[in-house]
Amino acid sequence: MFAWPFSEARDPSTDRPAAAAAARAIAKAFPMRFVNTAAPDAASRRSIGADAIERLEVVAGMRPAEVLSAMRTMQTVSVDDPADGVWLVNRRKPSAVEIRDRRVGVRPGRAGSTTYTSADWIPQQSADWIDYRVDATLRAPESGRSSLRVRVGSPNEVRVMVGRSSVTVFRHRGVGADRIVDVAVGEFALAPGRDHDVRVEVAEHRTRIVVDEVVVDVPTGRGAVTGGVGADFGRAPGGEWGSLDGLRVRRLDVVNR
Question: Is the pTM higher than 0.85?
């Protein structure tokens, strides 16, 4: 095993040919190459594909319970229904988003006066998710939007943003966390209403989105295609928040039986 000094596998030097030659030599000599970040992913299909497995650092002052808790966040889980569990910001920080009785929304009093909040469900442990279906009813506030995201954390992440009378589908473009940006695939009209039924099928080569009667297919691009689910909520200053009601996540082979 090889540990990249200063995690430079993801921050190549300005001499790109030299960096590429070093990467090839190291890959040939070592079957496993590690980096170290502040919020490491599980040892997943995605991290192996990126040629850099993230390691968990144990430092002085960590108590045994903290080490064991951190180890649990590094364990990949199979596609599961997020009927409970933790919604995080930046993979580690607790968020203002919670799930209760399959309703994902902003916890009262936690978001303060902010007008936007975002969170992901156990993003480290769901980094390998693929071939699953998400069902929910997106409730849009009178002045704002509610979004469901899939393939969270990958360069092929897709976001479905619903308002009272429209849905906009976004996909990620770019390579590397600091260069990925959202690009609109399209905006589609919906029958005006507060609630809209959403179904998203996440397969290897395609994301199929069904919102009420609107169907949108988004092909996957280069890079990792796996990842779990996330949610975004936006509102007018002082206004109400939207929500994702009746959220369910199931494997495609189960729902297609």
Answer: no
